[in-house]
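Let us walk through a complete example step by step. Step one is to write down the protein sequence. Step two is to encode the small molecule, flavin mononucleotide, as a SMILES string so that its atoms and bonds are unambiguous. Step three, shown after the inputs, is the structure prediction itself.
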Amino acid sequence: MALRIGSLELDSRLLFAPIAGGSTPAYRRIARRYGAGLVVSELVSARGIVRQGIGRNYRYLAMAPDEHPVALQLFGSEPADFAGAIRILLDDPGMAQFDAIDLNLGCPVPKVVRSGAGAALLLDPPRAEAIARAAAGALAGTGKPLTAKLRIGFEAGGEQGLEVARRLADGGVQALTVHGRTREQYYSGTADRAAIGRIVSALAKSHPHVVMIANGDVDSAASAADMYRQTGAPALMIGRAALGRPWIFRDFTETVALDERIAVMREHAEGTVRLLGEEQGCRELRAELQPYLRGFTGASRLRRQTTTLTTLSDVEALLAALAATEQPDQQPETVPRR
Ligand SMILES: Cc1cc2nc3c(=O)[nH]c(=O)nc-3n(C[C@H](O)[C@H](O)[C@H](O)COP(=O)(O)O)c2cc1C
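Step three: the predicted structure of the complex.
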């Protein structure tokens, strides 16, 4: 066991980040197989679950039997919505399989922030704590831990993350992922490791039982080592650099043989189509398969080919074209950026 979050035992300290349109059930399963210690769903609206039930949200909530441990991430602004959504999930035999609930306090998207959710909660510590209390209350007795993910602050130079992290820990959160950017930065600039480190060391004093996870711009063994050293966090979460590169979770493997890449892409495509159907699945694969196609001669032509994917036969044609290219595994990789 590499890491324990409450009763949850993780076999690796490298976790796969929640990514809308990226940490899908089909891909989480692959990331987990390559060694991610925990995978997290993309953000799902707590109010949406309360109002519409599981059916309308199924595609975001579905879990594969072999991707555990998996956390479902909820966003919202009302504590009662979180408690209600968690109860609905726990009452459903399929959904109750989740291993942890993660609270979103980082989403920078204007529509989400305007509703008081995501990164807006950085500006309202009492509400953040009330949400954690409500969610922890709904999980009480299940043995499933509550975790949260936040940014270091809201506006440029802001460090509201520290106070909010303490409040979340008071509210019952057992692990905290800190993304080293402010809301204002979105995904630009670089993650501020010193600011993450300040939150990690403050929480080590005030709430030593809370597992701290550092996030932002980890894309290699060297950047991971820097992140550990500069933040003091015992675990890391990797997002963009893991898209199209699940082998990063296997000791930061830079690249794999072409056959393996093709097999993973096929598994990703088939899993997506199983969940969403061929038409919708292929539409989503247009973006999801692109990160596999970077950093080698002929990659841009193949990326263009993804933009018209409509059937699984089109995916097979893409994979055949990839097989016919020069071996991308002989080329240096560039990290996919979105
Ligand atoms: C396209 C995209 C979608 C994202 N969706 C989510 C999300 O649903 N929930 C969340 O907490 N973070 C989300 N994030 C943020 C990532 O989890 C992560 O914090 C961020 O990308 C920094 O880590 P990285 O440099 O390893 O990618 C998203 C990021 C991107 C680029």
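Step four is interpretation. The chain has two domains: 3-249, 258-330.
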